[in-house]
Design goal:
The protein is an alpha/beta fold. It is built from 15 helices and 20 strands. Bound molecules: nicotinamide-adenine-dinucleotide.
Length: about 475
C-alpha cells in the first residue's frame, strides 16, 4: 500500500483509493486517501522542521540534495518501470529521459543554492543597501499526472535546496514514484518533517493544503481551470502557476523540411501527446502544406502504439478512462466541425492483454480552422491540428489567436523572420529550428492562460525565496 509520508513516518488513512495501470486498468497499488487531518499533520511537521533545515549551511543541504540525486540515478530502472506502470508513459522516455532528468534537478539546484548572491548599493546619502535571500517557509507542491516524477522533483529540488520545507501532493492518478522519492529522501539523510507527502484527491486533499494558513507558497502544475480555482481559494501566498497549453508549431516554406517534420512528429506524439508543451497546432505555409500533410500522416501511421513497457513502443495509453473519453470526444467534435482526418480517429487493434487499456489511435486532423474548438482547447492527447497559412503575418496572427501562451516552435532558415517571430509570438518559450530541448538554466513557464511565474535557475527564487533589503546608515 502507498502511504503518506508525514514527519519521516509512513502514515495510513482510514480510506484508500486505487491507482490503475492505464495499459490494462489493473490495480497497481492501493493508496492512502488523505484529507484535512493528514494535511494539518504534514503542514505542522513541515513548520516544525523549518527552522532547523533553513538554519543549515547551504553547502550541507546541497550535500544531501546531491546524495538524493545519486540515489535516483542508482534506481533509474526501478523508478522508470514504476512510472510507466502508473502513467502509461513509454519506458523509452521514462528510462532515458524523465527519471534521469529528476536526478539532474537535484544536482542542479544543490549547486544553485550555494550561490544565492544578493546585490549591494552604496548611496551618496551615507547608506548601504544590501539584499539577502531567505527561504519562505512551508511550501505546497502540487503535481499533475503527466510526467509526475520529473515534475515533483522539479519542485522539490529548489524548494528544499533553498531552505524551505515541503508538503507534496501528487495527482491521485499517479502517486507511485513520489512514494519512492520520499523513501529515497530519508535514505539520503534529509531530516524527518522537511519533506512530506500526502496523497488524495484535489477537493479533499489539495484544497485544505492550498488554504492552510501556515503554507506560505504554492508551486502548482496542472490545468488552467484548477490553477484559477487555487488562486481564488488560497488567499495571500506566493504562487507559481504552470498551466495548460496549445502551442503553435510553425513551419515556413524555407524551413529545413526533414528536421521540421521529425520535430513536429516528436512534439505531438511523444509522451502520448500528454505534454504541456506539445506542438499541438501545426501551422504550415501553403507552398509546402499538401506535401507536409501527406508526409506527416505517413509518419503518424507508422508509430508503434501499444505496451508502454516495450522499449519499441512510441505511443502508450491515455492516463485514465475519463481522459480517453475526453480525447475521443474531441476526435468526434473535430469531425463535426469539418476538419479532415488523414489518419486514425479510433482505437488501435491490440493484443488481448491490452484490450482493457485507455487507448486512442494517433489521429491527424488536417485543414483545421484555428477558430474550431479542436484548435482552441487543450486536447492533451496524440491529436495534432494541421492548419495552413499564407504569410508571416498570418502565421503570427494564428499563433497568437489562443487563450494559451506556454511554448512555441518556429521553423525557418531566414534569420530576420526567426527574430521577428521570436519577438512576436505570445509565449513563455520560443524554440527556433528546435524541438523542446530543456536547459535547466532557462526560465520555464507561460503567459496568458498558461500561467504566471517562472521556474528554473534563479527564476525559482520567485516562489521559493524572499528577497530582504537591509539598509545601513554609516
Ligand atoms: P489538474 O489541474 O486536474 O490536477 C493537477 C493537480 O491539482 C492534481 O494533483 C490534483 O489532484 C490537484 N487539484 C485538483 N483540484 C485541486 C484543488 N481545488 N486544490 C488543490 N489541488 C487540486 O491537472 P491534470 O489533469 O492532473 O494535469 C494536466 C494539466 O496539467 C494539463 O492542462 C497540462 O497542460 C498541465 N501541465 C502543465 C505543465 C506546465 O509546466 N505548464 C506541465 C505539465 C502539465
Amino acid at each position: 500500500m502507498i502511504k503518506h509520508l508525514i514527519n519521516g513516518k509512513k502514515v495510513e488513512s482510514r480510506e484508500t483509493f486505487e491507482s490503475l495501470n492505464p495499459a490494462n486498468n489493473e490495480t497497481v497499488a492501493e493508496v492512502a486517501r488523505g484529507g484535512e487531518a493528514e494535511i494539518n499533520a504534514a503542514v505542522q511537521a513541515a513548520k516544525e522542521a523549518f527552522p532547523g533545515w533553513a538554519g543549515k549551511p547551504a553547502a550541507e543541504r546541497a550535500k544531501l540534495m546531491h546524495r538524493l540525486g545519486e540515489l535516483i540515478t542508482q534506481n533509474v530502472p526501478e523508478l522508470a518501470e514504476m512510472e510507466t506502470r502508473d502513467t502509461g508513459q513509454v519506458i523509452g522516455q521514462t528510462k532515458k529521459a524523465l527519471v534521469p532528468r529528476a536526478a539532474d534537478n537535484f544536482h542542479f539546484f544543490a549547486e544553485l543554492a550555494k550561490h544565492m548572491d544578493g546585490e549591494s548599493y552604496q548611496s551618496d546619502t551615507g547608506h548601504l543597501n544590501y539584499t539577502m535571500w531567505n527561504p519562505v517557509g512551508v511550501c505546497a507542491l502540487i503535481s499533475p499526472w503527466n510526467v509526475p516524477f520529473m515534475t515533483a522533483t522539479w519542485k522539490t529540488a529548489p524548494c528544499l535546496a533553498l531552505g524551505n520545507t515541503a508538503v507534496l501532493k501528487m495527482s491521485e492518478l499517479s502517486p507511485m514514484t513520489a512514494d519512492r522519492l520520499g523513501e529515497l529522501a530519508l535514505e539520503a539523510g534529509i531530516p524527518a518533517g522537511v519533506f512530506n507527502i500526502v496523497h488524495g484527491y484535489g477537493a479533499e486533499t489539495g484544497e485544505p493544503l492550498v488554504r492552510h494558513p501556515d503554507v506560505r507558497s504554492i508551486s502548482f502544475t496542472g490545468s488552467t481551470v484548477t490553477g484559477n480555482r487555487i488562486v481564488q481559494q488560497a488567499g495571500l501566498k506566493k504562487f507559481s502557476m504552470e498551466l495548460g497549453g496549445k502551442s503553435p508549431f510553425i513551419v515556413f516554406d524555407d524551413a529545413d523540411y526533414e528536421r521540421a517534420l521529425d520535430a513536429a512528429v516528436f512534439m505531438i506524439f511523444s509522451n502520448n501527446g500528454e505534454r504541456c508543451t506539445a506542438g499541438s497546432r501545426i501551422l504550415v505555409q501553403r507552398g509546402i502544406y499538401d506535401k507536409f500533410v501527406a508526409d506527416f500522416t505517413a509518419r503518424a501511421s507508422r508509430l508503434s502504439v501499444g505496451d508502454p513497457l516495450d522499449p519499441n513502443t512510441i505511443v502508450g495509453p491515455m492516463i485514465s478512462r475519463d481522459h480517453q473519453k475526453k480525447v475521443m470526444h474531441y476526435i468526434e467534435l473535430g469531425r463535426k466541425e469539418g476538419a479532415r482526418i488523414t489518419f486514425g480517429g479510433g482505437t488501435p487493434d491490440l493484443p488481448a492483454h491490452l484490450k482493457n487499456g485507455n487507448w486512442v489511435q494517433p489521429t491527424v486532423f488536417a485543414d483545421v480552422d484555428n477558430r474550431m474548438k479542436i484548435a482552441q482547447d487543450e486536447i492533451f492527447g496524440p491529436v495534432p491540428c494541421l492548419i495552413p497559412f499564407a504569410t508571416e503575418e498570418d502565421a503570427l496572427r494564428i499563433a497568437n489567436d489562443t487563450q494559451y501562451g506556454l511554448s512555441s516552435y518556429v521553423w525557418t532558415e531566414s534569420t530576420g523572420r526567426a527574430l521577428r517571430m521570436g519577438k512576436g509570438v505570445e509565449a513563455g518559450m520560443v524554440f527556433i529550428n528546435s524541438q523542446n530541448v530543456r536547459d535547466l538554466r532557462q526560465p520555464f513557464g507561460g503567459v496568458k492562460a498558461s500561467g504566471t511565474g517562472r521556474e528554473g535557475n534563479h527564476y525559482s527564487f520567485e516562489v521559493f525565496a524572499e528577497a530582504k533589503n537591509v539598509c545601513v546608515s554609516y
